[in-house]
Design goal:
The chain is an all-alpha fold. The protein is built from eight helices and two strands. The relative contact order is 0.10.
């Protein structure tokens, strides 16, 4: 993972200097994580695809501002979120029916549960449905903090840098998101596998 990140940062540094030929490889290394992040920002697949393209366009336009040695993926996350917030402001001024928010992709990482039987497959789909639906309902600030910490694996410090805020604020937002998810899972008939309240607790069906 470290080698891949170093490669990504090196490619971004070269691209920032005007080496157009590295863009294809840069996109290949970055697109998967960015696409997943976009799907958490806006669960409608067509909107997420548009947001991904807007992110890459903005990244291209701002490439000269990339600081050598900084985390290129985290920089792209920040660009993606800024693009998403701009879109939210736009649609608030010009509301339209953008389609069902239930069009969320269900290929995101699942908790470590047994998926070998039809019953466990059904449980996995139910869990994804509950989590995806609740993430879509929570505030944008809480959702993004949770996604960056728990799904993208960023540290509190890294998340604060991406969001342009402080570490205590990140912890507060992520905690609120976690509590909202836990309440929703409990209402849907799930409970934490562990009883220590840890972030890594795996919900299991009651």
């Amino acid at each position: 993972m470290e080698a891949r990140l170093d490669q990504l940062n090196e490619l971004m540094q070269r691209y920032s200097r005007g080496e157009e030929s590295v863009f294809e490889e840069l996109y290949r290394l970055m697109a998967g994580r960015l696409c997943r992040f976009c799907l958490r920002l806006t669960p409608v697949r067509s909107e997420a695809d548009d947001l991904l393209q807007e992110t890459m366009l903005r990244l291209h336009r701002a490439r000269a501002t990339y600081l050598a040695g900084s985390n290129a993926l985290h920089w792209a996350f920040a660009i993606s979120r800024a693009a998403h917030l701009d879109r939210l402001r736009y649609w608030r001024r010009r509301p339209e029916d953008l389609g069902s928010a239930n069009d969320a992709a269900e290929h995101d990482r699942l908790p470590a549960i047994d998926r070998r039987s039809p019953e466990s497959d059904a449980r996995a789909r139910d869990l994804v449905r509950v989590i995806t639906g609740e993430l879509a309902r929570m505030s944008e600030k809480n959702r993004v903090a949770y996604v960056l910490l728990k799904e993208e694996g960023l540290s509190v410090r890294e998340t604060a840098a991406v969001l342009g805020t402080t570490e205590p604020v990140v912890r507060q937002r992520a905690h609120r998101a976690y509590e909202q998810l836990r309440t929703a899972l409990g209402a849907a008939g799930w409970k934490e596998h562990d009883h220590d309240g840890s972030w890594n607790a795996v919900p299991v069906r009651v």
